[in-house]
Amino acid sequence: MKSLIVIPARLASTRLPHKLLLRETGKTVLQHTWEQACQATRPAGVVVACDDEELAEEVDRFGGQAIMTSPACASGTDRVAEVARAIPDVDVFINVQGDEPEISPYAIDRLVELLAGDPMAVMATLATPIRSRDKLNDPACVKVVFDHAGRALYFSRSPIPHARAWDDQLLADDPPHFFQHLGLYAYRREFLLVLADIPRADCEILESLEQLRVLAAGYSLRVGVIDEPTIGIDTPEDYRAFVKRVTGH
């Protein structure tokens, strides 16, 4: 089963302009992400799907492979699908966000393994235990519930499952009760190419969560559990914290 990592790279960013090109560590955010992705052992390679020539030039500068995609793509998924249409000999595409410079190579390999081990699943994603009440109640932290076989049952911005009688011990229990969804996906090629044509589900529109379209349409989505969350960069504060972790100041 041949797999390929695609990093959708978009120049515009509302909360942190041109964040993929920030380079206070000596490397751009995009280069850090690319270098981490390249350490994954299961995929055959890494390409960067760019929407702007400036990004493509940066990818060329650090030695990566850039593929120009339409600026009109509505989402990273659409950008990955555009790459999939141009590369027909790949079975699985892994969507790694360009603003995750500390992405774990193990997490990427885990996605490939999930699809390799479950022929019925059209997609795979990851989750990590929630140990904080604030995170559990934060709508920006997407929660996921899955069955004993690791198939997703539902994703929500609300706390799920809802504890009818709350006790703080619930956050410490092992096995965990609550899981944060991590925005890392692997798609089978044939499903990725039809995903955009599947009608949006009501729950998807209400929650603003694209993955609910997959469940509402009756497809199987596998969820793997890893110990640590991926850390994306969305705000100036996120970037400052990343620079401090890399440089020590």
Nutshell version of this structure?
The chain has 249 residues and is α/β, with parallel strands linked by helices. The chain has helices at residues 29-38, 53-61, 76-86, 105-116, 133-137, 189-195, 202-207, 211-216, 236-247, and strands spanning 3-9, 46-50, 66-68, 92-95, 121-129, 143-146, 152-156, 179-188, 220-225.
Helix content: 25-40%
CATH topology of the largest domain: Spore Coat Polysaccharide Biosynthesis Protein SpsA, Chain A
**Distance between the ends:** 43 Å
Q: How would you sum up the major sheet? A: 7 strands, mixed
Shape: globular
The count of domains is 2
Spatial order of strands in the largest sheet: 3-2-1-4-8-5-9
Question: What does it look like?
Answer:
This protein has 249 residues and is α/β, with parallel strands linked by helices. It has two domains: 100 residues, Spore Coat Polysaccharide Biosynthesis Protein SpsA, Chain A, CATH 3.90.550; 126 residues, Spore Coat Polysaccharide Biosynthesis Protein SpsA, Chain A (Alpha-Beta Complex), CATH 3.90.550. The chain contains nine helices and nine strands. A seven-stranded mixed β-sheet has the order 3-2-1-4-8-5-9, sandwiched between helices. The N and C termini lie far apart (43 Å). The model has no long low-confidence stretch (mean pLDDT 95).
